[in-house]
Amino acid sequence: MKILITSDWDLSVVNGVVTSIVNLRDELTKQGHEVRILTLAKGLKNGSAEDTYVVGAVNAALMYPGLRVRVRRGSKVINELIKWKPDVIHSQCEFSTFGLARRISKKTGAPIVHTFHTVYEDYTHYFCPSKKVGRAMVASLTRYITNRSDAVIVPTDKVRELFEGYKVVDKVYVIPTGIVIDKFKTEEAGRRGEELRDKLFGDVENVILEAIGRLAKEKNLEEILEMLRNENTGAKLMVVGGGPYQNNLESKAKELGVTDKVHFTGMISPDNVADYYKVGDLFVCASTSETQGLTYVEALASGRPLLCKKDKCLDGIVEDGFNGWQYTSAKDFLEKLVLYKSMTSEERKRLSENAVATADRFSSGTFAVNAFNLYTELIGA
């Protein structure tokens, strides 16, 4: 099958959308399908190289950090893809390249599958001062995209239920995004993680908490920093990643007097992410803006139990006491942290093994098979 994947994010960007696209492309290619990608260029020139086609774009970081917006029609590039005649188009972003996907679909008759990666309600502060008006804009955008797609994919029931509130019910399929599980299980990653732990924290008996991902306001990491102030926490925190909110978080740690308990690594290479997951004992997250949260699954695959703020997207991922916990308040967080600290090494090992077993359900291979089954249904193959 010929499959065209479209995205506003250049594949060199480090985020969950790009990770999902690369994993899907690689798995579909392994299965013998022909996959091409249409995305935005880092500059104004259109072009193509191997299986990737780019259309000229400009920086639009004032609207959203890292965002680029198409300024070229990309006629030559688009005509090449029309001539290639894809069987199905899988759109991954709602803005610049969605319009290009529609142009190609109209010329070739290829159905459009669109994946919603983002719950925009949690990001309205980037583009609208009024939350109410922002929500109405998000609902309108969601209906617009859905009405112009043959099927839409959402990663969790949390997003499906949210869409019902927008009056978007038909054509919605819940397919959890997958990750490449094996790279988080290697002995090499474990060894390098131990070396990093010793380098960053020395020979400490404290529990090491880890927060890994893009540092943005909606991730709510300030809540975790606040809890480090409590003397009963008895833990240190490693924050891995960069983003527009990093300076704010570093200032907050200083304001709270917890700089001796927090280590900010800054942006790291994607090649080293698996090593950093092996540093901590517990993966923590206070965000409720995730649609699925690939970092949750990556942490589980690394054998790290979760201690995360209760959220609908964690249903079916976190099982309290089995592979981690969800917390509802600072008091609840501290109680569960104390519970973990009181566990024997054997109990912690069992928790870690359960985490890995949970992650196996979210492999990139499983995701690709489910996506392909949907493609087949749409084209009637």
Question: In a few lines, what is going on in this structure?
Answer:
The protein is α/β, with parallel strands linked by helices and about 375 residues long. The chain folds into two domains: about 1-180 and about 365-380, Glycogen Phosphorylase B (Rossmann fold, 3-Layer(aba) Sandwich), CATH 3.40.50.2000; about 180-360, Glycogen Phosphorylase B (Rossmann fold), CATH 3.40.50.2000. The chain is built from 13 helices and 16 strands.
- Radius of gyration (CA) equals 21 Å
State the total count of DSSP E strands.
16
* Oligomer status: single chain
The overall average pLDDT, rounded, is 91
Could you estimate the helical fraction of the residues in percent? 40-55%
Task: Explain what you see.
This protein is an alpha/beta fold. The chain has 2 domains: 2-178 and 363-379, Rossmann fold; 182-361, Glycogen Phosphorylase B (Rossmann fold). The protein contains 13 helices and 16 strands. It has helices at 16-30, 75-84, 96-108, 131-147, 157-165, 187-201, 221-228, 246-256, 273-277, 294-301, 330-342, 345-359, 364-379, and strands spanning 2-6, 34-40, 47-49, 52-55, 57-59, 68-70, 88-91, 112-115, 151-154, 172-174, 207-212, 235-240, 262-266, 282-285, 306-309, 324-327. The strands form 3 sheets. It has an 8-stranded mixed beta sheet with strand order 3-4-2-1-7-8-9-10, sandwiched between helices. Strands 13-12-11-14-15-16 form a 6-stranded parallel beta sheet, with helices on both faces. A two-stranded antiparallel ribbon has the order 5-6. Strand 7, helix 3 (96-108) and strand 8 (112-115) form a beta-alpha-beta unit. Helix 2 crosses helix 3 (96-108) and helix 7 packs parallel to helix 8 (246-256). The longest helix has 17 residues, at 131-147. The radius of gyration is 21 Å and the shape is globular. The protein starts with a strand and ends with a helix.
